[in-house]
Amino acid sequence: MVGSSKKFGVRYGRRLRLKHEAVEEQQKTKYKCPYCHKAAVKRMAVGIWNCPKCSVIFTARAYTVPKKAGVEEAVEEVLEESQEVEEDYAEEENEQQETA
Question: How many domains would you assign to the chain?
């Protein structure tokens, strides 16, 4: 047994130690940033990731950052939703100005 699960010694069983080691290895590797595409993204907390190069903080899966396509699709969806909200807000302002 090598790596992070060595701290458990002979306790908890071989399979659980191997699973623990695999999860810790996944969460501690550096992933590719979906914004600047540099392999520098590190995990801050469960599902919260940070890229020190472009100073962006974003959410993803608990232990890994999904492949580029999945993240880009999610970012596009969020941007579309925010644009729709902005358009609705602008329409409401226009209606209020017309009635006033």
Answer: 1
CB burial readout 39-76, b (16+ within 10 A) else e: eebebeeeeebbbeeeeeebebeebebeeeeebeeeee
Whole-number mean pLDDT of the chain? Answer: 82
Boundaries of domain holding 76: 67-100
Domain-embedded: residue 98: yes
Tell me if 31 sits within 8 A of 41, measured CB to CB. Answer: yes
CA atoms of 38 and 45, how far apart (whole Å): 20
pTM of this structure: 0.55
